[in-house]
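Explain this one:

_____
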Amino acid sequence: MSYTALNLDELRRILREVAGEDDTTGLDAEIADVPFSELGYDSLALLELAGRVERDYRVRLADDTVVEARTPGDFVELVNLALAGER
């Protein structure tokens, strides 16, 4: 399957799968501008998230760019730019 865009609802689903349902807190609230650190995700978790998105969305994300994504909104933008061939 080929995806053309990532949205916050899909990111929530992936975050739950990567972290496990019990480890995710606050994902049902508005998370676009909440820092990953406040959601309980560190840089290692972000790299794991990126690996999952790369597989599912067939897109390449540079590690240094991934860890610069401070919020889910930043991450969604990063993925969508890569899908559009702009990154």
Q: What stands out?
A: Helices lie at 8-19, 36-39, 43-57, 63-66, 72-83. The longest helix spans residues 43-57. The chain has one domain: 8-83.
